[in-house]
């Protein structure tokens, strides 16, 4: 299958590292012009330098802005007033005992993980529907379906993102624009390494720590390992293509079989 995104402009929020960086590489490798987003010009510049080595001839746009704020979203829109592909990847996570999650933390998780995506969909969707083509993907998580006791606030935000995706898919019905969620399973990133070591013995070598984490905290994974960011990116690139024209309003799983269901 040839996934050719030549001529398309894509924005990936939170794309200076981890899953976002892998998604940006995948889209650029398929021919899209990709806007790299992070909170500071320095992190964006480093990511662009890395991607330029990784993907020869990549067309990259620097789009530094804190899209978790109204002001930051406005700054981003000045840099990039229109896109064909929007991937809302920005997110925060962390563990906290359920009864110790403060009001401020609940609000922060909603603002970063949900409202940032809503703002950008609201800004870019009219242009997509007006042109009769567009792709929106919201990066969700298995935690949206299997709420982890150690981070209920995170799970809540990702459940909300599934609802946001389904609702905006209905708003875009019949327009040639698709809106989907990607349910990412436990994925190997720098942030996740830190999270794993919050829950298992910090003195363990990484391979042992990863196995112990999966055994104790994610035993239902059929993959029985952490997913690599490129594996999430592969699904996003497909959903961004013309070949995925009949997939919309869906919660597509790249979870290594973690969610114990025969339906999404």
Throw out a few tags for this protein.
264 residues; alpha/beta; 7 strands; seven-stranded parallel beta sheet
Can you describe what's shown?
This protein has eight helices and seven strands, in the order E-H-E-H-E-H-E-H-E-H-E-H-H-H-E. The chain is of the alpha/beta class and 264 residues long. It has one domain: NAD(P)-binding Rossmann-like Domain (Rossmann fold, 3-Layer(aba) Sandwich). Strand 4, helix 4 and strand 5 form a beta-alpha-beta unit. The radius of gyration is 18 Å and the shape is globular. The mean pLDDT is 96.
Strand order across the largest sheet: 3-2-1-4-5-6-7
How much of the polypeptide forms β-strand, as a percent range? 5-15%
What name does the CATH topology carry?
Rossmann fold
Q: Give the CA-CA distance, first to last residue.
A: 24 Å
- The helix-strand sequence is EHEHEHEHEHEHHHE
Query: What is the C-alpha radius of gyration, as a whole number of Å?
Result: 18 Å
Tell me the total number of β-strands.
7
Q: Give the class-level CATH name.
A: Alpha Beta
Mean pLDDT: 96
**Shape assignment:** globular
CATH homologous superfamily heading: NAD(P)-binding Rossmann-like Domain
Summed up, the domain count is 1
């Amino acid at each position: 299958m040839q996934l050719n995104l030549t001529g398309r402009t894509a924005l990936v929020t939170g794309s200076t590292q981890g899953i976002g960086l892998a998604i940006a590489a995948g889209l650029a490798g398929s021919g899209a012009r990709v806007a790299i987003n992070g909170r500071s010009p320095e992190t964006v510049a480093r990511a662009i330098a890395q991607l330029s080595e990784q993907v020869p001839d990549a067309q990259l746009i620097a789009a530094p802005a804190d899209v978790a704020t109204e002001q930051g979203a406005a700054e981003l829109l000045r840099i990039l007033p229109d896109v064909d592909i929007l991937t809302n990847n920005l997110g925060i996570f962390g563990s906290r005992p359920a009864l110790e999650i403060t009001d401020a933390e609940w609000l922060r998780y909603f603002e970063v993980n949900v409202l940032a995506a809503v703002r950008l969909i609201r800004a870019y969707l009219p242009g997509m529907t007006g042109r009769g083509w567009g792709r929106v993907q919201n990066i969700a998580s298995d935690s949206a379906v299997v709420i982890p006791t150690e981070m209920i606030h995170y799970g809540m935000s990702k459940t909300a993102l599934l609802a946001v995706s389904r609702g905006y898919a209905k708003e875009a019905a019949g327009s040639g624009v698709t809106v989907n969620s990607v349910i990412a399973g436990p994925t190997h990133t720098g942030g996740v390494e830190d999270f794993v070591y919050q829950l298992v013995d910090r003195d363990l070598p990484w391979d042992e720590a990863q196995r112990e984490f999966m055994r104790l905290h994610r035993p239902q994974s059929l993959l029985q390992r952490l997913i690599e960011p490129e594996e999430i990116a592969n699904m996003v690139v497909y959903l961004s293509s013309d070949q995925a024209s009949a997939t919309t309003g869906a919660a597509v799983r790249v979870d290594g079989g973690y969610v114990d269901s025969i339906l999404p």
